[in-house]
Amino acid sequence: MITTFLGHELKAFWRSKNTGKSIAIRVVMALLILYLFGCILFIGLILDKFLAGAFPHDDIVISFCGILLLYFLFDLVMRMQLQELPTLRVQPYLHLPIKRNTVVLYLAFTAMLSAFNLWPVILFFPFILKIILTDSGGLPALAFILAILGFMLFNNYLALFIKRKANLNGWVFLVFVALLALIITGDFRFHLYSIRNVSYLYFGHLLGKPALALLPVVLAIAMYYINFAYLKQNLYLEELSSRKASAYKSSTEFPLLSRFGKVGDLVANELKLIFRNKRPRSALVMGLFFMFYGLIFYTNSHYGETWYIFVGMFMTGIFIINYGQFMYSWQGAHFDGILVSKINFRDFLKAKYLLFTMVSTVAFILTTPYAYFGWRIVLVHFVMYLWNIGVNTTIVLFFANRNAKSINLSKGASFNWEGVGATQMLISFPLMITPYVIYLPFSLFKHANIGLTMLAATGIIFVLTRDFWVKKLEEDFIEKRYTIAEGFRNK
């Protein structure tokens, strides 16, 4: 049946009306992936020389054992952001005599067909064959290979399990991200322990006790069966009957939004669109990842307040930038219906402003723990929060009127440039440059406080004059609405 499923997906691909475009994208992606694998293979071939230069006082085998867990920790973070969930349209098979285990087995099998599963093979196997096999013999080399493959599959199924659970409950993802952040900061910031030492404690013992390689293999098998059981139990969750669906109360119903009337209803619908579809949801997830962006800059004294402006703008406004620039593209599939509906476009714009203000407010609150590095940083974040909900929101919505490329909501964001065009490239210039045009003249003459005050005042002025900007954006949209609609039709 696995070959049958693969055959059906290939037929669906070749018979799609967008086959030509999909092939072109896949060819480009294949070339990029091959180039990336070539770079990784080159690093793998010279890994012994790299380790000797990076850790000159350690034996290269000790250094190699010390970096393996660090790699798999980084690998897990990258999988959470970039690895796609394997999918299969199960609805056509529901009425056929096909066992549920067979469908789940197919999903579990395709989960292994990920580029992430080739990285450790290309990166670490040359070192194992070149150094460990030569110095310690075949059994320790085999133990290292089994251990690396075990951790690779464990990460693979752990990331997929957490992402599936997070699709139903967003708190699962937040708790997992917080746990990863604590592990990383506990080592690199507070030095409570050393991940390198823990890594060597395990992998170093593989040289004398190769049987320990079975531990990650057992963990990988256990995580596989956890995934298998979870998929089997929830396989048809999206295809439940209408009776059960009606009994389910959506988590995106926010009573607090009812006080905003029609605008609140539009925001509630927007939130449902975000939580129920991959591409817009990934814009929100990326915003959560950017909450840790400050750890790069605030832990290094070389970065001054000029950089804090940049960091504060991104951490409190990344959702506005990532999501807002595709304002109409999210509704591209039913944009004609919006044009002929009774929705007042001014309310539509106000809903966008309200949504961005809500998310940016939450983002600012999440960044307040950076007060650990000084209350001045929180002040800069607040100033840029005002700038984002005032100025940047208006700039983003202005450029959104010039984007007429539709987006498939069900596709993930990883290596997906659908809907991205020249508009998205141009928008970066005013977003990056404008705050510095105001701030730098005062900062250069040692009046940074006045510069921050001017930024905050400009943001407040834009917030207070929001009705004026909504009117101007509405007029701009009315002028371009048919051009936008035509662009969405030409998929």
Structural commentary:
- The protein is mainly alpha-helical and 491 residues long.
- The chain folds into two domains: 26-246, no CATH class; 255-489, no CATH class.
- Helices cover 73% and strands 0% of the residues.
- It has helices at residues 2-15, 19-45, 47-54, 60-82, 100-110, 119-136, 138-168, 170-188, 195-203, 214-234, 242-247, 262-276, 278-289, 294-298, 305-324, 335-340, 345-367, 375-400, 422-444, 448-464, 466-489.
- Helix 7 packs across helix 8 and helix 12 (262-276) crosses helix 17 (345-367).
- The chain is globular, with a radius of gyration of 26 Å.
- Mean pLDDT is 81; it is low at 237-252.
Alpha carbon gyration radius:
26 Å
- Whole-Å distance between the termini? 33 Å
Count of the domains: 2
In DSSP terms (H or I, runs of 4 or more residues), the helix count works out at 21
Shape: globular
Q: Give the averaged pLDDT, no decimals.
A: 81
Low-confidence stretches: 237-252
- SSE class: mainly alpha
User: Could you estimate the helical fraction of the residues in percent?
Assistant: over 70%
* Main sheet specs: none
- Total beta strand runs: 0
The share of residues in extended strands comes to: under 5%
Helix-strand pattern: HHHHHHHHHHHHHHHHHHHHH
Transmembrane segments: 23-47, 59-82, 103-129, 141-159, 171-191, 211-231, 282-301, 307-330, 351-372, 378-400, 421-442, 448-465
Keywords: Membrane, Transmembrane, Transmembrane helix
InterPro entries: DUF5687 (IPR043742)
Protein name: ABC-2 type transport system permease protein
